[in-house]
Amino acid sequence: MSEQTYSSSEIQLVVFKLGREEYGVSILQVQEIKRITEITRVPHTPEYIKGVINLRGSVLPVIDLKKRLNLPAQVSTEDARIIIVKVKEISVGMIVDSVSEVMTLNQQSIDSPDVVAGSVSANYLSGVGKLENRLLILLNLETITGIGQEANPI
Amino acid sequence: MDINQYMGMFLEESREHLQNLNSCVLELENAPDNLSVLGEIFRSAHTIKGMSATMGFTTIAELTHEMENILDMLRKSQLQATPEIIDTIFKCVDTLEQLVESVATNSESSIDSKPLIDKLKALAKGESNQTIVIEAKIEKTAPACSNIEFSDTEIAVIKKAREQGMNAYELHIYLREGCLLKSARTYMVMNALDEIGEVIKTIPTVDELEKEKFDLSFQAIIVTGCDVDKIQQTVLSISEIDKVLAVPCVLPKKTTALQVEQQVVTTEVAKIIPATAAATVSSAVDKKNKGGQSVRVDIDKLDALLNLVGELVINKTRLEQIGLTHKLVDLVETIEQMDRVTTDLQSVVMKVRMVSVGQVFNRFPRMVRDLSHGLGKEINLIIQGEETELDRTVIDEIGDPLVHLLRNAIDHGIEMPEERQNNGKNPIGEVRLIARHEGNNVIIMVEDDGKGINPEIIKSIAVKKGLISQPEADKMDANEAVKMVFLPGFSTAEVVTDVSGRGVGMDAVKNKIESLGGMVDVETKINEGSKFKIRLPLTLAIIQALLVNVSDEIYAIPLGSIDSTINIKSSDIKTVQNKEVILLRGQIIPIVRLAHALNIPATEENQDELFIVIVHLGDLKAGIIVDNLIGQQEIVIKSLGKLLAGIKVIAGATILGNGQVALILDIASLIQ
Lengths: 154, 672
Hints:
The structure holds 2 protein chains of 2 kinds. Chain A is mainly β. Chain A has 2 helices and 11 strands.
């Protein structure tokens, strides 16, 4: 990281939208953000696996994040992006509706995901960030991708 | 010192030397008097000792040190290479392997080498009187001073000095115990000696002295006009020198070779070094030097290189397409040139990644020896074609299946010696491990001349285990029956032994080989033996494939598994027991609708004309219905990554000329 110093109580997030909700993942886990390219469907995979893409010569799986989080599907727009994240050395792409900004969030303003306990996808969240009048849903990439989980995700 | 940077080198070289030890000790077992082999063993052990001591792995160093003592005694014919000693050496090698591996995995080793060291020490002391006697005699003669051998030039220098009224002295210089900077002290001694005369030789050499490769004393030959007292004074003026002995040099009267002989006589060692010793040693040296020049390269770098070449091939294909779409003649011509270069480049890179199967094979003699000893069988392992080369990725994986096949051959195949004799066979069984090229494949065969596989027994076991029903068994021919050994959960051993027969095995072998894109087959004759034949592709990274279209998706089928492509009418498809088949040249071939197998939404209406790709897997054939054939292309196989690993029907992915990802079909799972 550059000259900027962060206090340990702050984290930097890449903020993106799914439908009307705002989500965030730690910037340290984000490798790059890409426009939607040709995605090859892979048969016999869970529905939320959209397929694979070619990222400069390597083949990466891409997750349809809305399907994974049980959000209603929409027609994707020009703003749709693939966020490529690295979880335990494995790169995975996630389709999002749009990427809005990078912001710094204080650890203290993060609530545990229990506030939404009971909902199907609570398992995939690591917390909820409060920011003035906005709410940021922080994702748990390990459960979302199924990487590093005991059970095979597929 | 940061030893981590040397760790990789240490591990690699240790493993190499251990492997070498293993094969040499085996050789020694067959020819206990072979001094050149002993020499080789000694050198390997010595290198390991040196390396491990430098790296601070004292356990390894200690064990090798004791081992070296024994080896040294063997070399000097003070000990006989009895089976007991050979076994102990083998155990040492095993323990060393474990120790090295525990270093590799960075785990605390719980291996106790103490009993082995004690055993080695006991062996070194010798259990028989004879060895002790010889030892004693050697000790008596050992302290004799003037055993120094002079080269011709040195002799000439000494003679000349004498003509000039000077004298040559042999100095024995002893450093004080606990002397810290031995090399510095010796340097000072040398300097002082140089002032009063000329040092013409040191034992050990000056190099070794600088590296402190000596205990507490060393010898030097000095030519000087001074007398003994002066020399002693000079040397003793340096601190930390314990004492100096100076004796006038005695020049040998005869050549050094004769001197050796004299020594042998004077030491009265019963066993005179065989006359052939010198010759065999030199041949061993020849063998060493034959290795040729090579460079050690990290395999990751090679993988990276292959990846880059793969990228290049992909981009070339992309350029080709641009040239074709825009009808750019110049570009197409240039690309043709480039095509040749990339093809060459590719084949060179592939060749660089090739490793000879010998690397896997050379651990088998030891294994076969141990197994056959354990089972009380006598077995001769014959290895052929170990220079055959395969891609490294295949080499890494092929070891386990081969171990399994060999164990089976030894445990189930070869009979006990008495039984063999009763059947009029050579009591010594024969297991052959053969590798050779065949077209674009490499064949590895494991053959034994044992009892063979009885199809009737196989059938009855399969029925008993509920793998097939009795009527099914009755219908089966011998060939089919024998192939059932590859079924999961099949084991024919009546007694489950340590060696094999736990019911996992042959199916694991088959799976492994198939995952490598290969095939395994078995031929057997009762009482004559069995032959397992493994067929492997030369490489796994870049293959020729047929691209096909289903709906709007593109899939690649490896050309290696394609028989032919045909064009049929949809009315040609018949059904047998609700399964779709076609009749091709009198053969009934089951068909697979790719769209169905891949969960592709059905295309609007049934086409009347269908494209079928006939694929084969071993003897099994099947037709795959596709919408369209696109063409043959060279593809670079990419893994789908850990997240998507293990998907049925898909073997991997590749990147097409337009940058799109296409999936490669796994024929084996598609057919079954």
